[in-house]
Amino acid sequence: MSPIMIVMWGVALGRILTGVILLVAGMVKLKAGPTQFGKAILGYDLVPEKRAMILSRWLPWLEVITGGLLLLGLLSQLVATLAMMLLLVFSGAIAVSLLRGRNHDCGCFGLWTSAQRIQWRLIYRNLVLMAILLAVYTLGGGTLSLDEWLGLRLLSDIDTVAGLRMLVAVWVTAVSAAIF
To answer: What is the pTM of this model?
Structure first.
């Protein structure tokens, strides 16, 4: 197997793993209901109650759709960008809460079993997932993607390089914020 094929299989596996994580996280939140997830959002103390309730209704659906599209490998580059933005927002909310000295339910998978408390480890996990998504953004969906089978490549090489620079800057900023 050529090195390029190994990389494309790696991108595909990373895309699928990230898709499963987002899909399951969204489904868990949907199963728990907007009231339960709304309480977790309010624990961050970043948005008013009315906005938290709006977020608790549509954010799980956004995760489910994003995760599903990543699993399928459809519109991979655009969906990878959306997923990175979600993970960046989640990481930012967790970092702000931790820096404020708070210790509350993260609203992640904790709704499924026992409540999972916010911790730096969640930010590091999200940074790893963002790095995987950066590869998906740069290289496309990889092997086993509908994009590959349909011949879809939404971004040209020039767009990819410019976008990659922007995403690396965002990723470095997120890492720096998490560390400091």
So the answer is: 0.83
